What does this fold into?
Amino acid sequence: MNASVNAATESPGAFPLTPRSMPRVLLSLIRNPLDALPPQIFEEPFVFTQMAGKSRLYLADPELIYQALVRNSDALGKGEDVQRLLGPALGDGILTSDGAHWKWQRQSVAAAFRHEKLLELQPAMIAAAEHRRDLWLTHRGKPLDLCQEMMRTTFDIIVETMMSGGDGIDVDRVERNITNYLKPTGWKFALGLVGAPNWMPHPGKEKARAAVIFLRATLATVIAERRRSGLERHDLVSMLLEAADPETGRMMSDEEIIDNLMTFITAGHETTALGLAWTLHLLARHQDCQARLFHEIATVTEGGPLLAEHVGKLTYARQVFSESMRLYPPAPVISRTAIREFTLGAYRIPADTILYVPIYAVHRHAALWEDPLVFDPERFDPEASRSRHRFAFMPFGAGPRVCIGNGFAMMEAVAILATLLQKFRVTGASETSPKPVMKVTLRPMHPLPINLIER
Ligand code: HEM
It folds into this structure.
């Protein structure tokens, strides 16, 4: 019989969460949940702890992550944490639901993310990047906030490719409201940890509530307009309008369609934008890598404009983006709750255990990476990648719940990087990177400024 993970002393480097350490952990959670990760998880394969009456298991060993997220995926649900954080905005959509309801939704939209379909979207990705590049050409000398710039670019892409332009969505207001929704997530983590009820007031709660009302109403208008016009557009909105549950034949309600559009808009642009902002920041600090990227872009495009067929050939650009996501994974922690007991390595994991996969810590783990804090895109050279465990690098998660948009994101990121760097060299980043803060996604604590030099 396997040992049960039921005492902190059984885990290597157990995290001593005691009544005395609790206030410090809660304060860290409110400010920045990354600071509340047990420090041992950057060196140990796993850390087990018990807090607020719940068993919590942090996994950093790639093999244990594989065993949990892939082999035992049917023993895991998204759990209360995810519902508390994202449920008010994303309802019971593809990211937050479980079981048959999740499966139906995933199958309904899968076709939109097949490789052949994504290839058709490349021109729209390049066009949005060119639009940003042209705006930058008129911005000369003015300071730019990289995160904001990248959010606008990826937002244009998600709305254009998934919603055929979005019928006049107010992009600025949508962006502001997404930020207002995400701002108080530290409070939600902390209140969840002590088992506080959902109605408990906290700073930022009213603004977040107003944001959800605005965002969902905006999408309701998009759906109503699409139904009214009867236009067939072959995009995600049409797919959701036509989706029927394979078992019952039931169509999605408007609320369910809104859940999913909210999910795709938020999950589908924030993450890539933040990945790109950190990438440009790192390139500004590593001019040698930037020079190599210029060379690759010039060789592949033969000095002409970037075309759809070039994107797949920009292998070093992919390496650079991957290495940036290693250091700054846009989704830094994922979590699950065990819905039944299961076996993990030598341990029995009881039902109700909360599992955390701190991608941020896995990507900086002392046992998995040499000089983990050093930026080195060579790590993603095909040869070097082959010699690593597949789940040592997992910015898009793993198993059946792996990011459905991963191919989309890689294509989009490479297209944006290549288009911008054909015209500009980025410089002027601070010597050290600003501290990353987790607000569901990984944002820099302070804006990432850069200078643009026209090439
Ligand atoms: C660099 C960009 C991105 C990163 C790092 C990222 C990361 C992730 C991760 C880690 C998950 C798994 C969450 C979990 O297991 O709990 C996920 C799920 C998801 N992502 Fe992404 N994502 C990115 C871009 C995108 C894009 C572009 C889209 C859509 C266009 C998208 C849509 C989704 C959806 C719908 C899910 C839920 C899938 C499911 O549960 O079946 N993501 N993403």
About this structure: The domain at 3-454 is CATH 1.10.630.10 (Cytochrome p450). The radius of gyration is 22 Å. The chain has 18 helices and 13 strands. The pocket of protoporphyrin IX containing FE is lined by residues 94-95, 106, 263-264, 267-268, 271-272, 275, 330-331, 334, 395-397, 401, 403-405, 408-409 (CB under 6 Å).
